[in-house]
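Hallway conversation turned thread

IA: we were arguing at lunch whether anyone had actually written out Argininosuccinate synthase end to end. Turns out nobody had. So, for the record, here is the sequence (404 residues) and right after it the structure tokens. Reply here if something looks off.
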Amino acid sequence: MPACVLAYSGGLDTSVILGWLQDEGWDVHCVYVDIGQPGEDKQAILKKAQDCGAKSARIVDVTEELCRDFAFPVLKAGAKYESIYLLGTSIARPLISKVMLQVAREVGATAYAHGATGKGNDQCRFQLAAEALDPTVQMIAPWRIKAFRDRFPGRTELIAYCEEKGIPVKATSAKPYSSDENCLHVSYEAGDLEDLSVAGVDVVDFTMGVSPQEAPDKLEEVTVGFEKGVPVSINGQKLDAKDLVEKANELAGRNGVGRIDMVENRFVGMKSRGVYEAPGMTLLYEAHRMLEELTLDRDLMHLRDQLSPIVAEMVYYGLWYTPKLDALFAFTDKAQEPVTGEVTLGMYKGNLSARRRSSPNSLYDAEIASMEGGGSYDQDDATGFLRITGLPSRVQGTVTPRSY
């Protein structure tokens, strides 16, 4: 029998897909990619796959790699999709595909199956990553196969199939939305959130922190240390990437930081509404930007700001393993060399504010910037500077005067 690997979560969809693949004549190797999903009994999920006839089942923990090699490079680039979304799900998908192909090579599988729908972004991220890493891989996306959709048009048919096959599932009523979790964030979409008249923060049961209204009525300070643009410490304690993100989640979450509600443009062309919470990454992004204000040259910072949306778009679309993104990350690595130092922020009811910042590479010179008399800046120099800068405008104004 041919073999395939299945990105397996143990939920209703992938449980059905496991059974369906077996019905179609595949030996299925289930892979639960651990990217820091909280509150799940991973061993129970593994046992369920084995009990349902999987040829093999395993858990692969890549949480540290997700933070260190995927989230932090995107953070260094200052990339936010459409200026808001911190890309928590987008970042994880190419790593999941990498793991799936590594397992496929180990077990001799020729195909890779996943449960993403034909409407969303995840199908793009899974497949584009897989094809870049192994162009020979056969992708199986059941929700893009008409015969599968005809057989399982809705949740009722999925549950009935599980009952017929003896597959244990929680056959409860559907949640008013769907969610996707990892250590970087939680995303919420679909269900009641498709109605734009509904306030997303009122519908969603957030899990990573309290609401701003419930946060302490007292400002809490936190200090984040960076080396070459990479966060390395919190409150003076050096931490590995995973532990640092978890600590940032804890501190920012209890202060109501990091909730957004947005309508975004999906890669496939439609607009969709998403609610996100990313307390720790919101804190790290803000601290990183504050340190860049001290350490990056003006023109370099402005160029980086022009490139950040390009990085965000490529990550969102799933174009991780591409020469273009490799080159953009290489630029970022060079640009971030001076971004070393510490930033202290104040957290208060969902807000972040600068308290203190320092860097051995600071370009801020109080004597030059001072509004007081004296200092090392000669204001007379500005006259010549402005005469030269204004020359093209004076010539243009003589030739084609503007009305005013």
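OS: looked through it. The chain has a mean pLDDT of 95.
IA: good, adding that to the notes. The longest strand covers residues 27-34.
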